[in-house]
Amino acid sequence: MQYYQCSRCDFIYTETPYWLAEAYDSVITRLDVGLVYRNEQMAGLTQAVITTWFDKYAQFIDYGGGYGLLVRMMRDRGYDFYRQDAFCANLFAESFDITEVAPFRAELLTAFEVLEHLPDPVAEIEKMLALSDTILLSTIVQPAPTVTPNSWWYFIPDTGQHVSIYSKRSLQLLAERFNLRYYGGMQDVHLLSRKPITHSLFRFITRPRITRLVNQFIPQPSSRLLADFNQIARQLPNQQPQ
């Protein structure tokens, strides 16, 4: 596997990734032991960002949503989330995939640990922006422009799935390409949006302790757990909702 680096923005990318079919034979790799922890962390952060700047009663999309765990967690918190993922089985949010509802434009789209998997980030961001004007994403930016697969774990060449490694500057230029504002936060989280917000406040809100305080004191919508149960029950043959 060969890596190349942009001299303008330090973005690191691989040669044409001919190995992707093999790499995604198992979409979620055995090395992703942090999947549940990450979803717990991102659910709280997403809630804090939405309640601070966005309409919490709107519709939302988790792009590249994997097993649907984040969608289920957000719906349990009261947020009308739907999953998008063309490659992974939907285990936890079945019936709440964007393919199962009428097309809509999301108030906000999340894309956690997605960008590093994209061989063509520009094309995929275009697809995301067709669904929402705001993308809340996570990816770990390079700690230094001199990182290599031998010096930084995030390359994870053994899986063959991380084919794009970003610098802060490369994310800024990606936002500019689409006339979006870039906001860098804590917990490796970034916001690309047409919505103007205070950058310093975004960094503050995305601090774990502050995120917890925001979620503790700002009311959230009522959980969708029972309503979702009844909706799915009505779809099943010979079943009556409770």
TrEMBL record:
InterPro entries: SAM-dependent_MTases_sf (IPR029063). Pfam families: Methyltransf_23. This is Methyltransferase type 11. It comes from Spirosoma montaniterrae. The lineage of its organism: Bacteria, Pseudomonadati, Bacteroidota, Cytophagia, Cytophagales.
